[in-house]
Amino acid sequence: MAKDPKAAAPETGAEKAAPRTRAATVPPSQVQFDTAQLKSSYCNVCNGTSTREEVVINFGVNDSWDMGTEKLKVHLHHRIVMSPHAARRLRDMMNRLIDEHETRYGKLGD
Description:
Elements: H1 13-16, E1 45-50, E2 55-62, E3 74-82, H2 84-105
Antiparallel strand pairs: 1-2, 2-3
């Protein structure tokens, strides 16, 4: 017996989720941030890698910067994994923040 091409296929978890579109984006004025579990960390080192599907950024602390040691030891504390689209939004936000900082306080040195 041939299957009806119009018959609904069983839904998977991915198919049940509503597709994300630009039109469905919530305006910033309608976003409420819950900071109840927010934790702050200091970092002075970051590095990153990427694949086709994700961008990975590691954050950590170099606490031997003034010790004159032969080997540099960096303690990594956080790894953030995101899609390339989220990484582009992060890049754009960081560019805006640095531009604002330099407008207020002057150009950063290299």
